[in-house]
Design a protein that fits this description.
Structural class: mainly alpha
Helix content: over 70%
Number of strands: 0
Largest sheet: none
Distance between the termini: 33 Å
Radius of gyration: 25 Å
Oligomer: single chain
């Protein structure tokens, strides 16, 4: 049981064709719930590959926008340095996960760790509202929304297997952004902040609704595939049992009739 789980590590996140297809004795030791949890973690880590590069690139572009908006290089550089350290830590962590593989014993723990690291990066993005100058121009205000909305969209579409992740990401990015727009619109009525406030609220409602629907479909597919895998192994075991009995010239026990549904 436990030894077999530890020695038969899964590396299907680096081989998408083998995802959700557990092999040999290892597959038969897993329950449906364990299969679902394992595939859920594999899907999360599989979709996370390469995202840190995009996040770092978006941060670099935003620093350029901040510079043209009048923010000092020291402030924007300090923020970007923090972002670079966070994304680097996540990249190293994901590399470690690919090296050791996912098992039923470590999948939940590694997923929780990656969850916290991702939310920390989201909070770093959310903190950009404190970098904005008092007299920020409209271009900076619009680009700030583009930065946050891209993070939310990627999280919602790419991490559908873990709804709590993208819902938390929305909370640490769009929620403070909407407060900032409301504050800025109150002090600068002539700016586009009021429009961006409305757009941010709309985005914060529309994206979760679509994403949660997608998540329900993903979870349903996980469950169907897990139950199908269990049924396949059950049929294989029955067939193997019949063959062994025939080779030994022993009677085959009749299969218990299924109860009517």
């Amino acid at each position: 049981g436990l030894v077999r789980h530890q020695t038969c590590r899964l590396t299907s996140m680096t081989n998408p064709s083998s995802r959700e297809q557990l092999s040999g004795e290892f597959s038969r030791t897993l329950t449906v719930k364990e299969r679902i949890r394992l595939v859920r973690a594999e899907t999360f880590f599989g979709h996370a590959v390469g995202n840190m590069v995009g996040i770092l690139l978006g941060g670099a572009i935003f620093c350029v926008v901040l510079y043209h908006a009048g923010v000092s290089i020291e402030r924007s550089g300090a923020w970007f340095s923090i972002l670079a350290m966070l994304t680097g830590a996540v990249a190293l962590f994901e590399r470690k996960v690919r090296k050791i593989g996912l098992t039923p014993e470590n999948a939940n723990q590694l997923l929780r760790m990656r969850f916290r690291m991702g939310i920390t990066i989201g909070m770093a993005y959310g903190s950009t509202i404190f970098l904005m100058p008092e007299n920020a121009n409209d271009i900076s205000l619009v680009f700030l929304f583009l930065l946050m909305s891209s993070m939310v969209t990627v999280s919602s579409m790419g991490y559908a297997a873990v709804p709590s992740f993208y819902l938390t990401m929305i909370g640490v990015t769009l929620f403070p952004l909407s407060i900032y727009y409301a504050y800025y619109a109150f002090n600068h009525p002539q700016s586009v902040a009021a429009v961006m406030f409305a757009v941010t609220l709309l985005w914060g409602v529309m994206i979760p609704r679509k994403a949660l629907l997608n998540s329900r479909l993903v979870r349903s597919s996980f469950e169907v595939n897990a139950r199908l895998t269990e049924e396949i192994w059950s049929r294989k075991e029955r067939l193997s049992y019949r063959r062994r009995r025939r080779r030994q010239n022993l009677p085959i026990a009749p299969r218990a009739p299924s109860l009517p549904t």
